[in-house]
Amino acid sequence: MSSPNWKICSKMEIPCPRKNNLNTVVVVTKDMLLCSLVERTLKDVYNLVFFSNIESSLDYIYNSLPHLLVLDVGKGEPSVISMLNQLKSDPIFGQMPALMICDDVYILPAWDDLLVEDFVRKSAIETDLMLRVNLCMARSERVVEVNPLTRLPGNIAITRQITGRLDKGEIFSLSYADLDYFKPFNDKYGFSRGDEVLKMMGRLVLNIVKNRQPVNSFAGHIGGDDFTFIMEPDLAAETALEIMDTFDRIIPTFYDPEDRVRGFIESVDREGNKRTFPIMGISIGSADNVERHFSHYGEFTELVSEMKKYAKDSSGSSFKQDKRR
């Protein structure tokens, strides 16, 4: 079974049309008949990516942040439900809606024990699945605030994360990351290529943060070319340095060959004057509350912003961490 328009996921070869600008739905099931029903029902409206088990889907979910997870739990396998709840308990992936497909005889547990937005029984797939999927998408857009470009949590979720951790007395590090010379790049190459840079940056921050601290870390997209991440204090510096190093290796590929060889582009500054700009870099500022007490999240974010500004005063990619006690 093969076709250039199909995406092969895990060990299942299922047609997965890749249509531009369509929301992506990850479907997890071992049932080939169910795969065919879901594919036939949703293929014209959504991009579908199929996996045979939830474990094999995690890398894709971590990298792509799909718009919806559809999970076949059969008669309610405890291990599958446990992994789903663990995924949805994460402050980032908790914002991804999940729809459960279950057998007709499955007795639903208390909703407090099941972190899904909705469910559909297998006998109702052909009549109800599209409606349920559309409802999950609509609820997600109303209730959850994510950046539409990177799918990372936005400002409301970021503020809630910082405030909630401070209120609980958690010790953590907060970092801000900002791209250097992004506007001239956007002006020269256009918004489409600029958006690709931002999506790459979002994936980069999320992947590195989650690889270094899988549990209780957080990555968010403040807006534009500004990102943030929250980690344990002793992991912040090495994470920031890895983000910088990886970004510096990837970003030249977004430039035209001649500009990449020259090491700069010609564009206009904020005053409209023509000038040259180097290849984009990244500035990261970080602070923690190990020995400082912040009574309000604004005090914390102001200090981190100060560190980021300090980093931007340096040439090239730079990381500055507040070490004052």
Could you walk me through the main structural features you see in this protein, from its secondary elements to its overall organization?
With 325 residues, the chain is of the alpha/beta class. It folds into 2 domains: 24-142, Response regulator (Rossmann fold); 155-321, 2-Layer Sandwich (Alpha-Beta Plaits), CATH 3.30.70. It is built from 10 helices and 12 strands. The protein has helices spanning 32-42, 54-64, 78-88, 125-143, 155-167, 182-189, 191-212, 233-250, 257-262, 297-312, and strands at 24-28, 47-51, 68-74, 98-102, 118-121, 173-180, 218-223, 226-231, 264-268, 274-278, 281-288, 318-321. Helix 3 links the parallel strand 3 and strand 4 (98-102). The longest helix is centred in the middle third of the chain and has 22 residues, at 191-212.
Strand coverage percent: 15-25%
CATH topology of the largest domain: Alpha-Beta Plaits
- The CATH superfamily of the largest domain appears as Reverse transcriptase/Diguanylate cyclase domain
Please tell me the overall pLDDT.
87
Shape: globular
Distance between the termini: 63 Å
**Low-confidence spans:** 1-19
Largest sheet: 5 strands, parallel
**Helical stretch count?**
10
Sheet/helix structural class? alpha/beta
| Strand order of the biggest β-sheet | 2-1-3-4-5
Q: How many strand units?
A: 12
CATH class label of the largest domain: Alpha Beta
Helicity level: 40-55%
State Rg.
22 Å
What would the keywords be for this entry?
Rossmann fold, 42% helix, disordered N terminus, five-stranded parallel beta sheet, single chain, 325 residues, Alpha-Beta Plaits
